[in-house]
Design goal:
Helix content is 21%, strand content 38%. By secondary structure, the chain is of the alpha+beta class. It is elongated, with a radius of gyration of 27 Å. The longest helix is centred in the middle third of the chain and has 14 residues, at 81-94. The relative contact order is 0.22. A hairpin with a 2-residue loop joins strand 1 and strand 2.
């Protein structure tokens, strides 16, 4: 069973809209427990996610702020320009071919001396990220409420991509106590 939601550029899990700070507990039902409630579709088990709910009494405000950074620390060993050109020339010699503009522009047209460390240029930056969460909950004997919101900035480590895709997200959820059951088929 495909539980993904179609979005631009692919599919997204329905759990991506669930703020982890709003989760009260996660239960795993296996074997007979799962099939008794959800039938044969739950033969491999069920994961139940219960979200937090408001409690009777004065309003409660919870805030959480996170700030961090990520950086690529392990890079692959790559050939430098002279090693790459030697490898390419050896490949053409082994195949008894002559490099031409059509089959080897790197050997015939491009600079033979310039060196670029593309890993350093494309994935060498530090991505500073931040996130803030705020929730207000409370209620009376008859009504309980919880309002939560999350906002953040999570850019990638790649400078070229960060110009295009630096993610800024804000989400607001009005939560009524609910349990989400994920059935594994």
């Amino acid at each position: 069973m495909n539980t993904s939601i179609p979005v631009a550029g692919g599919f997204q899990s329905p759990l991506s809209a669930l703020n982890p700070a709003d989760i009260e507990r996660i239960d795993v039902l296996k074997d007979a427990d799962a099939t008794a409630i959800y039938g044969s579709r739950a033969a491999n088990g069920v994961v139940m996610i219960t979200t937090k709910k408001g409690r009777s009494g004065k309003p409660t405000i919870n805030a959480n702020v996170y700030s961090g950074a990520s950086k690529v620390v392990n890079r692959m060993d790559m050939l430098n320009t002279s090693e790459y050109l030697a490898m390419r020339k050896e490949a053409f010699a082994n195949d008894n071919l002559t490099p031409t503009v059509d089959n080897a522009p790197d050997l015939t047209e491009w600079s033979q001396t310039e060196y670029n460390d593309w890993q350093k240029r494309l994935i060498g930056n530090t991505a500073n990220q931040s996130e803030a969460q705020l929730s207000v909950s409370g209620g009376t004997q008859q009504t309980h409420y919880m309002l939560s919101g999350t906002g953040g900035r999570k850019p990638p480590c790649c400078p070229m991509i960060s110009l295009i895709t630096a993610e800024r997200a804000v989400s607001i959820s009005i939560i009524t106590a609910k349990t989400i059951a994920l059935v594994s088929e």
